[in-house]
Amino acid sequence: MKALKYIAKIQTDFPTKFGIPRQSGLVNTKGTIVFEPEYRKEEALKGLEEYSHLWLIWQFSAAVRDGWSPTVRPPKLGGNKRIGVFATRSPFRPNAIGLSCVKLESVQHEDGFGDVLIVSGADLMDGTPIYDIKPYLPYADAHPEALGGFAPSPKETIEVKSPPELLQKLPEGQREALLGVLAQDPRPQYQNDPERVYGMSFGGWDVKFRVKDGVLTVLSLAETEHQ
Question: What is this structure's pTM?
Answer without folding.
Answer: 0.91
